[in-house]
Amino acid sequence: MKNWLNQHTLAMQLVLQRLKAHWLNTLTICMVIGITVTLPGLLFVGVDNLQDASRSIKQDAQMSAFLKPALNGNVIQRLINDVQALPQVKEVRYVPKEEAIKQLGQQFLQKDLLADLPQNPLPDALFITLADTQPNTAKPVQEMLQARDEVEELVVDSVWIERLNSMLVLGKRIALIFACLLGIAMVTVISNTVRMQVLTHETEIEVSRLIGATHSFIRRPFLYMGSVYGLGG
């Protein structure tokens, strides 16, 4: 056991001497490995932060349900209660057609522009704010409203949500591919560096073989050197 520990200690001391003698090369290789590991990590963190930010934008995830004309107030209230009972819904705001045309009239410079209309052309409407911006959140609410007879038209403001989520998924896949490519590059750099060390000490290796050194004894310093490069990076 003591002999085994002495062999490993001697190998580590030899590696440290070689690294110290070529400290600039050692520093450069460690920096390359560190940058290679850091870049995909930063990309993953950026994508995750964007995903968290997209979940916090809840006030823009809305649906607009335009109701059929001449509905009873009790029917409308029952529809509002049913929509509010859904776990995907955060808020339901009912806008009667009288209030809608009043708000529309306030947007015109000529206040009496809508006064000549024979009747109010706007329908009663429900503006539904969803709990989050995930596409799966909007689907059950959309299906429920489309199945109700009280709803004449449904406008779903979720196209941008689906596009945003698709872009985030694509970003994660790109980050994963980028990490794999950089990982292959990192392994290649370490392998080539160790191979160059082997070629540099080829004469020393031949002498060690002549005096009876085992293959594990010869390989051990180079394995430690590759490990130090990896840990240093």
In a few lines, what is going on in this structure?
The protein is α+β, with helices and mostly antiparallel strands and 233 residues long. The chain has two domains: 7-54 and 166-232, no CATH class; 62-157, Alpha-Beta Plaits, CATH 3.30.70.
Spans with pLDDT under 50 lasting ≥5 residues?
none
Structural class: alpha+beta
Largest sheet: 4 strands, antiparallel
* Cα Rg: 35 Å
Provide the spatial order of strands within the biggest beta sheet: 2-3-1-4
Hey, roughly how much beta strand do the residues contain?
5-15%
Helix-strand pattern, N to C?
Answer: HHEHEHEHEHHH
Query: What's the rounded overall pLDDT mean?
Result: 75
How many structural domains are formed by the residues? Answer: 2
* Net shape: rod-shaped
Helix count equals 8
Secondary structure: helix percent: 55-70%
CA-CA gap between termini: 32 Å
Count of distinct strands: 4
Which oligomeric form is depicted?
Answer: single chain
Keyphrases for this structure?
rod-shaped, Alpha-Beta Plaits, alpha+beta, 233 residues, 2 domains
Give structural notes.
This protein is of the alpha+beta class. It has two domains: 7-54 and 166-232, no CATH class; 62-157, Alpha-Beta Plaits. It is 67% helix and 11% strand. It is rod-shaped, with a radius of gyration of 35 Å. The mean pLDDT is 75.
How would the blueprint of this fold be written?
Layout: H1 2-21, H2 23-56, E1 62-67, H3 73-84, E2 89-95, H4 97-106, E3 125-130, H5 135-146, E4 151-157, H6 159-200, H7 202-210, H8 215-232
Antiparallel strand pairs: 1-3, 1-4, 2-3
Helix pairs in contact: 1-8, 2-6, 2-8, 6-8
